[in-house]
Amino acid sequence: MAEADPGIFGTLARIPEVAIDGPAALDAQLRAAKGPFVVRELVADWPLVQAGKSSAREARDYIARRRRDRPFTVSVGEAGSDGRMFYDAAMAMNFRTMRAKLPEIFAKIDELGDEELPIYLASIDLHEYFDGLHEANHVDLGDRVTLDSIWMGTRTRIAAHNDIPDNLACVAVGRRRFTLFPHEQFRNLYLGPIDNTPAGRAVSMVDFHAPDLGAHPRFSEALAHAQVAELAAGDALYIPAMWWHHVEGLDPFNVLVNYWWRETPRWLGQPQDALNHAILAIRDLPDDAKARWRDLFDYYVFGNGDDVTAHIPEEGRSILAPLNPETAGRIRAFLLRQLSQ
Hints:
- The chain is an alpha+beta fold.
- Helix content is 30%, strand content 21%.
- The chain folds into 2 domains: 6-261, Jelly Rolls; 271-339, no CATH class.
- The strands form 2 sheets. It has an 8-stranded antiparallel beta sheet with strand order 2-12-9-14-7-6-3-5. A 6-stranded mixed beta sheet has the order 1-11-10-13-8-4.
- It is globular.
- It comes from Sphingomonas panacisoli.
- InterPro entries: Cupin_8, JmjC_dom, RmlC-like_jellyroll.
- Residues 98-276 form the JmjC domain.
């Protein structure tokens, strides 16, 4: 797969780089961050990084020795797709998803050599699928409760999407190019369906290697706000929650380790669920009805001012008071009962 013409990426603003000296400095930088940043060589001392610098095969052997004996989920794309894990012309996926043991997957990658075939293992839980890999290769993120995952594959392109949690992405093997957009740029990225998606999140329909500005004219505005970085093995990137990111594996074998975390309590609901339910319950109402519901959402959810509860005795405010695990659980149980009817 030929790498993207730098004419597209070469004109974009660069993601800021910061120097980090130890976990306390990283913690402070993350807490103060208003946007993405790159830390060069943050994980350069990882044994996995060192193995990969020796050779891609040594990196695969290092990972395989620590695997658990269980099937892994792997996606296999189409030859000639330029590594793009995306839709086909009928809006079905242009890749097959299957289960196989990790040595079998790595043997296929070895067999390919220089042949271009997208193979992608996405978001594999480090604790469930490996013994000792996380312990030997991890970032100290203090008291954050993180979801720790590894992503492995050949040269691939993952369409621009966003994630609800904050994300620290660490390149362990190979090189990756990240192109980021602020959260408000979603209108200019021409998003696809929110239910039929390559990996659970809506993606940009724009081909970043060959953008069609006739079909997607607002993409020019998105590019005006884009930031890009190419990360080598050992480098890390902080992606704030809800920022859109297009990700490319640039080498024949690439490995990323990432950490997701939310600053909000885990017992809160998922906003995406609320969006899906609003589409079901509100979107297709008459305009006047939608306007009334918009007012109610502004009042109870987005505004949520003192006037909502000031006239209600404090002990009687129920779910209008700040949520806690008990009241959140009560809402969840109520919704489950309603949706099951």
